[in-house]
Write a structure and sequence with these properties.
- By secondary structure, this protein is of the alpha/beta class.
- The protein is built from three helices and three strands.
- Strand 2, helix 2 and strand 3 form a beta-alpha-beta unit.
- It is globular, with a radius of gyration of 14 Å.
- The termini are far apart.
Amino acid sequence: MITLDPKLKISLLLPTRKRVKLLQRSIDSILNTVSSIDNIEILIAIDSDDLGTTEYLNTVLVPNFQSRNINMRAFTFERQGYAKLHLLYNYLATKRVS
């Protein structure tokens, strides 16, 4: 179990494309590793043509995260390649939403 400094806010970026099981394993690992989810934000990026992952997100993840008060944002995007995706994630992780 990792204990996080409560003053820190940590954003975890999870890009995915048609890998629902791997996405769920990644999320489970994160939630089982940290002592508190209060300062964790999970960002999930899904290709716009990945309907299976989008459906899983809407029917399983969002209700589960809402019931557990887990801070999560999901984005769909056109396939851009990992170099552009990395730049987008860095922008999203530093962007403050009011």
